[in-house]
Amino acid sequence: MVEGDDVGQPADHGRAGEHADVAESGDAGDVGPGGGGVGQFLVALVFGEVVSQFPLAGGLYQWVRRLWNGRYAWFNAWIYICTITIGITSTALFSSDFLASLFAGTADAPGISSTPTQRLWIAIGMTVVCLICNCFGTRTLALISKIGLAAELIGIVLVGLYLLIFERHNSFSIFFQTSSSNHDNYLIAFIAASLVGLFLFYGFEACGEIAEEVPNPSRSIPRAMQLTVAVGGVAALFAFVGYALAAPDLASILSGKDTNPIPSILQSSLGSVGTKAVLAVIVTSFIAGVMSQQAAASRIVFSFARDDMFPGSRVFSKISRKRRVPMNALLAVNVVPVLIFVFVYFSPDSLTRIVSFQVLAGYAAFMMVVLAALRMRLKGWRPAGAWSLGRWGFVVNVAALVYGVLGMVLLALPTGGSGTSFVDQWITLVGFLVVSAVGLVYLLTMKPDRKSTAPEGDAMEVAERLRRRAAALESTTGGNPA
C-alpha cells in the first residue's frame, strides 16, 4: 500500500518545473533531471536506513529526534511543516492551468492559462476534494495514490514514449547545444537546469509519514522511497525528452510566448480527444499529489503534538476512532494553504517565489536528517533495521550530504536581472531565513522541547536492542528467523 502513497508527488513538482527545463534545453538542460535524480536517490537511501530502524508516524521529526535531540527535532519539524504546507499550496495552484485546459481548451487554443480568479477557486476546490478523500482514511489515500501512480505512468511515461518515437519535430541536437537561448552565460544555464533537477525529485520522504499505519514498514517504507524516486526519475526523463522533441514551436516556448506549452504539444500530436484524455490523467496525478502532502503534513503535526511539542497539542494529538485518522491535524494543515491562495490571488507573481522557498526549505529539512545520521554514525551507530546499506552506509551518507548542501547553495542563488531589487533577487534565501528566525525565536523563548518526555538521541541503544532481539530470535528458531 505504501509503495503508491507518494509516487505521484515528484512528477507533480516536476510538471511545475518542466517548462523551465524545456526552456533551458542544451547540455545544461539535459543534466537537470539526471543529476537531481541520482542525488535524491542517495538521500532516499539514507532515509531508508533511518526509517527502517524507526518506522514511526511523523517521519523526519521522529528520525532526527532519535538521531540527535528534541530541540534539533523541533526546529526540523518547524521547517518541514512549513515546507509541506507550501507544497499543498503550490501543487493545488499549479493544477489550475491543466484543469482549465481540460474543461475550456479548444482545438485552436488547447492551452488555457487560468485567470487569478479561476486559479483561486480551482485551488480551493482541489484542496477541499482532497481533504474530503483523506478524511476517509489511509485505504482511500492508498487507492487514489495507486490511481495517481497509474496516471503518471500513462500520462507521462507512455505518452512521452509515444511522442519520442512518433511525433518528433526537433532533433536530438537540442540536448547537446552549448548555449542557452535565455542566458548569455552557459554556467548560469547549467545552474538553472540543475535547479529544475532539484524541483523534480521531491516528496519521496512523505512515504515515511504513515509508517505506523502500514504492515511491515521496516521493509516496505525504504522500498517505497526508492521506488518513488526511481519512478519520478523515469517519468521526468520521458516527459522532458518527449515533450521537448515533440514541441511544434520550440522557439515560442523558449521566448516565453507559450506559457502553457504541454496542451499545445499534445494537441499537435494527439488531437483534441487524446489531449483531453491525457489532461484528465494529469489532473488525477495532481489530486494524488495534494492528498499525499495533506497526509504527510497532518501526520507530522499529529506526531509533533503527541510529544507535546506543538501549540494545541491536546487537540491535534487526537485520532478519529472510526477512520484512525488525525482529523484535527488534517483540517489544520489546510488552513494556511487557503490563506496563501488568497494572497496569490492579489499577488500572482508571488507563486514562483513561494515555490522557490518551499524547495529550499525542503532540502534544508532533508539535510538536517542526513547530517544527524552522519553525526550518529561517527559516534558509532550502525543501523539495525530490516533494511540496511551495510558497509556502504557511511559513503552514501557523506555523498548525500554533499549533494544536498550544493543543492541548497544553488537554490539560494540570486535570481532576476540587473534591474531586479535586492530583496527580489534574494527572495528565496530571505524567505527561508525569516521562517527559520521565527521558529528559532519561538524555540529559544518558549522552549517547547522541554515539555516532552519522548525518547531522544537513543539511536545506538535502540540499534543494539534490535540486534540482541534478532540474535535471540535466531537462536530460538535454529538459525531460521522465518
From TrEMBL:
Highest rank taxon of the organism: Bacteria
Transmembrane segments: 41-61, 73-94, 120-137, 149-166, 186-204, 224-245, 265-290, 327-348, 354-374, 394-413, 425-444
Biased composition (Basic and acidic residues): 12-22
Keyword Transmembrane (UniProt): yes
UniProt region (Disordered), positions on chain: 1-29
Name this protein carries in UniProt: Amino acid permease
Localization per Swiss-Prot or TrEMBL: Membrane
Membrane topology, record value: Multi-pass membrane protein
UniProt keyword annotations, A-Z: Membrane, Transmembrane, Transmembrane helix, Transport
Major subcellular location class: membrane
One Gene Ontology term of the molecular function aspect: transmembrane transporter activity
GO cellular component, one term: membrane
Signal peptide start and end residues: none
Organism: Streptomyces rapamycinicus (strain ATCC 29253 / DSM 41530 / NRRL 5491 / AYB-994)
